[in-house]
Amino acid sequence: MKQKISVVAVLFCLFSTFITAQTEKGKFSISGRSSIEGAYFSNRVYGDNISIGDREAMDVDGYSFSITPSLSYFVIDNVSIGGQATFSIADGDYQSKTTEFILMPTVAYYFPTKKMIRPFVALGAGYANVSMESMSFSGFNWAGGIGAAFFLSNNISIDLMAEYAELSARTSENTKYRYSTKGLGGSVGLSVYF
């Protein structure tokens, strides 16, 4: 019985050491996140007293998708700096096709725990380009979020994140035209540490 307890204690200590080693100084992380809003949608309106014109105006089909690859380096234990690039596209009956491209330096702090789940906070700011069928906008974007990395092994985690972001841009053709968007969203991703 004492041997079994000793083996379990040794394995637990080794496993705890591995779990805290991913976010130590000198490590790299490569991640890829996809927005939860990445989906196809189809809205329909039903009812006896709705005119054909109103029904056609309210029945919409569309889709949106977003992907964010990133690379980070841990400058000290549990603190990483890096960069990410986001590409998103949205199209549908209700709007013209819109694409966004964002380049953003980031910083993240992972709360030190000896468990397989590591909460973190992240902040970033950078350049954004938004293109629609008729015009293109360029400007500033910032985002901040909280999340948790669920470590499946010593060097792989699944990351869940809630994030608030704001984007403010202008078009080069006419500086009076502005594009602004802000909101709260969520994402799921996969990270590899080495």
Summarize the structure.
This protein has 194 residues and is mainly beta.
What does this structure look like?
- The chain is mainly beta and 194 residues long.
- The chain has a single domain, classed as Porin (Beta Barrel).
- It contains two helices and nine strands; from the N terminus they run αββαβββββββ.
- An eight-stranded antiparallel beta barrel has the order 1-3-4-5-6-7-8-9.
- The radius of gyration is 22 Å and the shape is globular.
- The relative contact order is 0.17.
- The model is unreliable at 4-20 (pLDDT under 50).
Order of helices and strands: HEEHEEEEEEE
Tally the helices.
2
What's the main sheet like? Answer: 8 strands, antiparallel, barrel
Helix content: 10-25%
Tally of individual domains: 1
CATH architecture: Beta Barrel
Distance between the termini: 37 Å
Globular, elongated, flat, extended or rod-shaped: what is the shape? globular
Side by side, the strands of the main sheet go 1-3-4-5-6-7-8-9
Can you count the beta strands?
A: 9
Low-confidence stretches: 4-20
* CATH domain topology: Porin
SSE-based structural type: mainly beta
Let me know the average pLDDT.
Answer: 81
Q: Strand-residue fraction?
A: over 45%
